[in-house]
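Pantothenate synthetase: structure, please.
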Amino acid sequence: MLTKEICEIRKVIKDWKKEELSIGYVPTMGFLHEGHESLIKRAVKENDKVVVSIFVNPTQFGPNEDYDSYPRDINKDLELCKNAGASIVFNPNPEEMYFDNNSTSIGVSSLTNVLCGLKRPGHFDGVCLVVSKFFNIITPDRAYFGQKDAQQVAVIKRMVRDLNMDIEIVPCPIIREEDGLAKSSRNTYLSQKERNAALILNRSLLKAKETLENGERKANIVKNIIKDSINSEQLAKIDYVELVDNNSLENIEFIDRDILVAIAVYIGKTRLIDNFTFSI
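Here you go.
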């Protein structure tokens, strides 16, 4: 079932609530792949009903980013949602989600001035605004997010906590191609040569993970191992390489707690991200 109208999805949700059915929610920007499919399947397993939203959110794209060219294929997306067991797909137009004179903003400042937030000012304000709107419309019991966007997960968790939203945020593991590349809708931008070059992201992280498992605790040494590895690939250009506290996202010098190792790398013109967590 597909709906584009807020009033219609609210009516469906109201009927489910009357029956005391639990609701899982998977927010997406469409052009779905196996990573999204894994989120939907987990939501289906853990809830009576599952809503998937498909919405390319204009407020989280900067002026020179890829909003207009972001890949879209609604028919393929609907097929994947159906096969994964989603109960309903909510695919609103921007005009349905935003008023012309929209005046409200939501930000989680302490978590958004690092990593992707530092390089993409306003991005996470747009994410917080649209996710909070979807939460208000859908009122889910649980919402599912991929760990590939680790900073987004941290930001949404903090927003939910700070605003006393009664929603469980469920982070889900990164889904990878057989050769290790993290699944991403933006992988479709890559030429075959760039696709091969993109493998350097996961390879670099695996080297870092091995270094940490062997006992290295100086963040700079681990960072340099990642940077040297990425710089060995001619088509790769580093945006950032960071080791941060897994909860606060603060940069650390010595690894004495659970951390997030996060990278952003341009392969040609395509910006890709990847990460892993490491526990002491």
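Notes: Strands lie at 2-3, 23-28, 49-54, 88-90, 142-146, 168-172, 236-245, 259-267, 270-278.
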